[in-house]
Amino acid sequence: MSLFQTVLFADISRSSRLYEVLGDEAAKTIIENCLTRLTEIVQQHEGQVIKVIGDEIMAIFPQVDKTVWAACKMQENITQYAATNDLQLGLRIGLNFGSVITENDDIFGGTVNAAARIVAFAQSGQILTSQETVQALSVPLQMQTRPMERIPSPGKTGRISVHQIIWERRELTTARTYIPNTAVFTSVLQLKHHDQVVQLRPEQSGFTIGRNSENDLSICDDYTSRHHVQIIFRKGKFVLIDQSTNGTFIVAKDHSQAFIHREEYVLQHQGWIGLGELRLPDHPDVITFDIRNVSTLELLDAVKADD
Fold it and tell me: Angle at CA 49, nearest 5°, toward 47 and 51?
């Protein structure tokens, strides 16, 4: 199955030196403590650890912003742990958002390969990501990144534009001095099904709709697939991705229609969605959508209210 996820690699740096100085048993205990801390942070931010490779973890997250929050928490946690115990170790993190193939509790694909290439380029104490991932972030988090350089892609047919995510408080203070006083505007998507109304902010990318109860929005009828569609936020737009058997119909406010099947569609303005069949606005299982622009100040207030 192919899904849009954010892949994160977190690699404990200077571990070889740790084994040389402290010996195998003591060093092994320290590395295991660090890996446990990293795993707990992944779970706290709704992620999943796919595998542990030596002193490195590979994890996936359904929401891009939460991946960045988890990465920052990891750096803070390991930095504090090393300082408290007078240890010479650090953490290198690389993350990348895109389509991944899930199979037998493992993940594959270009997104995974690019994330592995990015973490290999990172230095101790850094969080690096791709330009495409930055564009999928909410505006406040985009302001906490800075471009670095372009590195060869895994296939060596192109290059990856690498950005650094600033997580240290002293650097964040410096970065925030460049934030303009004028409000920046971004999009919010409102979905309505029956009496249920959902507001999707950019950082909530990865919203799923389908017949299975595990979806964010569950719709039980004969035309809806178990995992029918997914909605992500990419490059400033909400993108609907059909993963169904019967396809998806989208009707705009001007009554223009589009049908997609195993492909993507950029939602715009207002309209309604029919899963598996063309539906009128008064159909009991129609989903209406409304996209409006809000300022980053409103978004920040909304995030604080949720917290």
Answer: 160
